[in-house]
Amino acid sequence: MSANGITESYRGELATRAGTALLYGLFGLLLVAPLAFGAVEAWSIFLVEAGSAALLLLWIGKQVLEGRMMIRRNSIFLPVGVLGLLIASQLVFRVSAYPHDTMSLALLYASYGILCFLASQTLLRGSQARKLALIFSLYGTAVAGFALIQGISSNGKLYWIRQPRMGGWIYGPYVNHNHYAGLMEMLVPIPLVLSLTRLASAKHRNVAAAAAALMVGTIFLSESRGGMLAIVVELVILAIFLVKQKKGLRTAIGLSLFIAIVVGLLTWIGGAELIQRIASVRQSHSELPSDIRTYINRDGFRMFLKKPVLGWGLGAFPVVYPQFRSFYTNFFVNEAHNDYLQLLVEMGALGFATMLWFLVIVYTSAIKKIGNWSEEISDAVALACLLGLSGILVHSIIDFNLQIPANAALFYVLCTIAASEPFVQPMRKRRTVRSMPSVEVVTPQEALEQSATNF
User: What are the C-alpha distances in Å from 103 to residues 79, 203, 292, 355, 391?
Assistant: First the structure.
């Protein structure tokens, strides 16, 4: 073999290793961020931003090793780009009421964009999705188990060590129980959908159902009413898909067993206190009272009417809001407690319309792929993403999960996966689904990717 051949082989091996590191580095960052209190402090925000920048450099290095720049398109790229231009225009034309916060948050949104871009470039094969589903299921189970133990033996500190500076309602690694619920809303559908498919053995499906039940149970035990509502919505949507596909007795029994485990766990640990929390509308701990939420919504709409086109500037809500506050409170209103309202205030009608465009693309792309979700990994992943996104979007009506970097990053990456093209299938499986012979032209890189799915 020539020296040039050896060099090309070595470069190809390095590129393959870089691709693996990129994939697991990307999703590893998404898993680490919630453990850092949701990545809401300066050091953890820097972790997300620096981590995404390092991963982008690694992707560029991989392209150099392969000798070409290959970008896989995703339908969400256009609305994401438009949103980026709107944020830039707030800074360039000095629309923002507080440019410093707008610039700081723009950097964080750039990190979200990088993570979404890299997800569409790295998660390509069904085998990768299977491994990540297992990792995320184990991760969700571990975090839920930790939250359960902490809830029983809490001393009012994060990890029994860190005292929150401004108080809170601690659950799991989050200061706010609603944000823990938001994380679980996005993770629960992964093992739950897996337990209802034929993509795993019966033993693994039962384990996945138990893991999902534990995660759902902790949402209720966290006493987040928004989380409870979101999970109910997710289960209703899943039931609709089950009825639509006319699933048999085995699936009905499996879903009933899942619900029974959840109810048993809640009855054993939550008891009468949980029932009282669900039935009441009172606040406890340091949760914002419902009447104050109503005032904030009213004040926020008045803010929007003052600057309806481009808004007050990304991240400017807490700075501008005191001018419009119509009530007295000891609470520091740092967020609108309604992600839709905050988007409308900060980004105006143009930004709000762009986000709606983004979500329409995500949902239409995902629904097109959900045809045979019990048999195909691409369809199952699309359904799991759709359920998780639906839950967090419902919860966002009464809370601000999408202002928490860890939850927002995971949300946007799930949107990217939901809108992506179906995963590459093994060649032998492609032959079984073709109805007639055909000729397919692929690039060397695509051929390498297809052959790698056979292991």
Answer: 20, 50, 29, 19, 30
DSSP 233: H
Other Cβ atoms within 10 Å of 407 Cβ, number:
28
**Tell me: the pLDDT tens digits for 363-422?**
999 999 998 898 999 999 999 999 999 999 999 999 999 999 999 999 999 999 999 999
- Please give the helix or strand (H or E) that residue 167 lies within, else none: none
Rounded Cα distance between 126 and 455, Å, is 11
109 Cβ contact partners less than 8 Å away, ≥ 6 residues apart = 83, 84, 87, 314
Tens digits of per-residue pLDDT, 41-58?
999 999 999 999 999 999
**Cβ atoms of residues 104 and 316 within 8 Å:** no
CA separation for the pair 243, 233 (Å, rounded): 15
132 CB-near residues (< 8 Å, 6+ apart): 27, 123
Query: Would you kindly state where each structural domain of the chain is located, as residue ranges?
Result: 3-432+439-452
pTM of the entire predicted model: 0.88
